[in-house]
Amino acid sequence: MSFTTVRPDQLSNNFFEAIGKQWMLITAGDESSFNTMTASWGGVGVLWNKDVAFSFVRQSRYTLEFLNNSEYYTLCFFGENMRKELAFCGANSGRNVDKAAVTGLIPVNDELAPYFEQAELVLICKKLYKQPMTAEYFTDRSIIHNCYSDGDWHEMFVGEIVKVLKKV
User: How far apart are CA 77 and CA 157, in angstroms?
Assistant: First the structure.
């Protein structure tokens, strides 16, 4: 199977479903070294007159190191048939295991960032903004207790969607 390039405004995906229920893989790095992680928090929209994706990565995640050192990253969306592989990528650290080798995910090395052959949709993003989330900025203080009681805060990334690949 191959991919075709489409414009972000041509997408009709329900990203509430795709991110929150079906999950996605956030991947950063290059051909020689990359890491991926499963995410179920994020979104897409328009900011600064650009089509963007919002991603959130906990400070403890190995993928954060790759995101911090990369200009580009990918968000990969899969069919329900890949649920087991995404669950594995969310429960295991790339520090300890080669996630692609264990799950059978086949990396594709785009000139900007790696993604996976089995994906149905790939958003290739250029980092525009990054900010650690901290307690002082929460107006709903219950979120701190409910989501950050262990002190493992997220870092927020805003990435311009520079390329969209859709499985044909």
Answer: 18
